Amino acid sequence: MGLSSFSLVLLVLGVVIFKGTSQQVRPNYADALSKSILFFEGQRSGVLPSSQRMTWRKDSALYDGHDVGVDLTGGYYDAGDNVKFNFPMAFTTTVLAWSAVEFASSMDPVELGHTIEAVRWATDYFLKATSIQNKVFVQVGDPYSDHACWQRPEDMDTKRTAYAVTSTNPGSETNTVDPTVRVFRFALFIVILAVIRYDCIQDELLWAAAWLFKASNQQKYWDYVANNFNSLTEVREFGWDDKHGGIYVFMANELLSKGNNDNVYLQHADRFVCSIVPESPTKGVTYSPGGLIVKPVGSNMQNPTAISFLLLVYSRYLSRANKVVQCGDKIANPQRLQEIAKGQVDYILGNNPMKMSYMVGYGSRFPEKIHHRGSSLPSVVVHPTHYRCQDGHLFFLSKYPNPNELTGAVVGGPLPNDTYIDSREDFRQSEPTTYINAPLVGLLAYFSNPQI
């Protein structure tokens, strides 16, 4: 879609308003870490605990699963809407857990505890979603009716349809969620049934098997990855819908830690890195003029956070093995990978042409009109009266900042030319998501207290 005249005016105003000096800002990584974890409390669904710190949020979606006779309360709302999409939620949960495992030594005990709580909030829900044999619930909430409303999660009266994958209705979502033999075997069965209808789903099973091996140390899961790795088409991506890069880095480390410095996973991981390093002759990503990784997706900021997380994790593995990455005639050592990752984090926190933070509540200037239903309407604390489906559009179109700060939320980010319009209407720029924040937790933990 092209920019409307109104949007162009906003763009010009935005550039003027957010224009600042070229002086670099020294980020407060510890503060940003605390806020990035707090964000997940704002995305909680179900009955909120007494320890809830984001107090403008209240209990919601208390009858999820009622239509199918299963308790499906809990979990996270995906983004600025009120739907629970289990596929991106699974990625979010896995990366949060990976952050806790990989960077626990860099985290303050309090923040580590909050991170584990964030993981548990999702896993408790996933246990419910996989509680029936040969049935996996993959989504709660009808996206069409939900997206037609602008309504607080506490007020929802749209359809809360529970969607499931079964042996007679195959799909591929949430195969990485429950670390049990039963669910993994069912996932394999579903993939066999669905192979004619779906492409590029083998990476999900290899991702699941890799983590099951890590959790259980059972050789059969390692063998599954080894025996099926060649069936993957080499893809240099990593995110909620593509696990290739994560598989390469994860498996490479397992062998590097055992002294195997020359293996197929390492080769793939190196090629992934070379597709990111700016000076690499095989670079496959675009950088904005201000230095942000840009890919053609709806909410771009998911790319800088996820890719930077892998670069940082891999740099630590390479450092321990005393190895570097050879990209043609260029060498990328572990320090260079960390430098690239740090540059992306610093951009998000304010070292960018707009001189603004893209994390809500961090710094002196940040997005105030984010595309998020609960944040943009008065909370039930100050307005206990029910808002109907269409009642919220008045607040959606409001020129004023959101009344409730969704602290720690990282939005979709600027346009490829580094400009940002602070407008709820442009969801690609102003909508936060759980899968943007999840990789950032590990990054911020490390840079707040670097540990090799």
Short description:
The protein is mostly helical and 452 residues long. The chain has helices at residues 5-18, 29-42, 86-103, 109-129, 143-147, 181-194, 202-216, 219-228, 244-256, 264-274, 302-320, 334-349, 373-376, 393-396, 427-430, 434-448, and strands at 84-85, 135-140, 162-166, 286-287, 293-294, 325-327, 330-332. The model is unreliable at 1-22, 172-180 and 186-199 (pLDDT under 50).
Please describe the topology of this protein.
Elements (H helix, E strand, L loop, with lengths): L4 H14 L10 H14 L41 E2 H18 L5 H21 L5 E6 L2 H5 L14 E5 L14 H14 L7 H15 L2 H10 L15 H13 L7 H11 L11 E2 L5 E2 L7 H19 L4 E3 L2 E3 L1 H16 L23 H4 L16 H4 L30 H4 L3 H15 L4
Helix pairs in contact: 2-4, 2-16, 3-4, 3-16, 6-7, 7-8, 7-9, 9-10, 9-11, 11-12, 11-16
Mean pLDDT: 89
Shape estimate: globular
Following the backbone from N to C, one meets helices and strands in this order, namely HHEHHEHEHHHHHEEHEEHHHHH
What is the CATH level 1 assignment? Answer: Mainly Alpha
Number of domains: 1
Which regions contain 5 or more consecutive residues with pLDDT less than 50?
1-22, 172-180, 186-199
- Class of secondary structure makeup: mainly alpha
| CATH fold type | Glycosyltransferase
Quantity of strands, as a count: 7
* Rg calculated over all Cα atoms: 22 Å
Tell me the strand percentage band: 5-15%
First-last Cα distance: 45 Å
Helical fraction: 40-55%
Sketch the major β-sheet: 3 strands, antiparallel
Q: Going across the major beta sheet, what is the strand order?
A: 1-2-3
Could you say what the CATH architecture is?
Answer: Alpha/alpha barrel
Output the number of helix runs.
16
